[in-house]
Amino acid sequence: MKRNSFKNVVLISEIKFITVKPSSIKLTAHQRKTVSLLSVGTFLEYFDLMLYVHMAFLLNELFFPKVDPFTASLLSAFSFCSTYLLRPFGALIFGYIGDYMGRKAVVIMTTFLMAISCTIIAASPTYAQIGITASWIITICRAVQGMAATAEARGAEIYLTESSKPPLQYCLVTLITVFSALGTTAALGVASIFTSNNVYNNSSSWRIAFLVGAVVALVGTAGRTSLREADEFTNKKKKLKNRLAENNIEISDINEKYINEKPNPLTSICYFVIQCARPPCFYFIYIYCGDLLKQEFGFTSAEVISQNFWVSIVDLLAIIGLAYLSLKMPPFKILKAKFYFFFAALFFFPLALTYYKSPTCILIFQCIAAMFVFDHVPASPIFYKYFPIFKRFTYTSFLSALAKLLTYFATSFGLVYTTSFFGYWGLFCIFIPVGIGFIISLSHFQKLEDQAARNA
User: Fold this and answer.
1) How remote is the C-alpha of 109 from its chain's centroid?
2) Does 17 map to a domain?
């Protein structure tokens, strides 16, 4: 075997990624079916996950004690963060299953857990009926949902990353984010329908929304049982051997240390920091602005949900635009452009509300922020490929889950205090350190890409 032939096919020691043959750029019929099932599954998962998040303005009033506005903000932050409390543990558990036992089992289990938790929420008594026990039931259900959601989009994105080549690869992986956004929009739409009567304490219409979510999850569970995944998600050594055999390379030529290697520590830190970017953006758009609408403009929970629904449509359209744009522009240029536009809008937010405080002004800034959220989309495949293929699911899932847990806690509770002391400018106490870390981490991956291009 020639050294150059081996280098052209597998550069594990240098870029930790198995290249895909040019002939495999076009997806097969089975791959297209798998992509469809994964995308629909992501939609179902995020529909259930976000149903409570966007109905929290209503449900927190039912499942938590009524307190002053400041304490209510703290309770709202606690309720929101409970979704991410067990995510790191879920990442380790489902990451291991996904890497060593198969991803089909993971997506079926996580969807089924969503169905159970939605059913329990729908049937739970309120705080007025059983006191603080109701708060704990809801918190536990939210934690289980967050744990189950950890592996969902990750498995789909990694599969598509390993099954396609740029630039199509960036578009396909971004489709997973599109369907997660579609699930969020659908959840908001359903929440808006079932909370429009404005008689929350005397009506159980919101319970119907969660029963719908449970049914949706059960349908998704049944649909995923038809997913054929043995050759793609299980026994990665066999998959590697088959790919090498196509190029007349023996598996023995791959040193065992590459199969068991761990990711570069600096790369792991940079990936962690990049994953910290989206949580404060999401919280600002949907939760913080929602609280402003309730506390300063007297919006009802239903009115907040309705406004957030229209914002989510803008968010969805923006991600669809990113999927198309990723076919035309390098992902890093897109990420940097989103970053600069987001911070430009954020800078004018305090100024605008100082001189023109109105719900319309908040809506405009919500939409602008939703369009230019700075995060990992559409460059996810670039980040994934610098993690060892045999550890990729576990490491990226855990780092992402831990980043979201810490950042959501820091954002949720931090903004309650920073904005109480500094007003709207308190937002920058969270966004400036996150933004600086994001740009520095992005430059690290840019250097890795430049080095890989020189070595190719």
Assistant:
1) 18
2) no
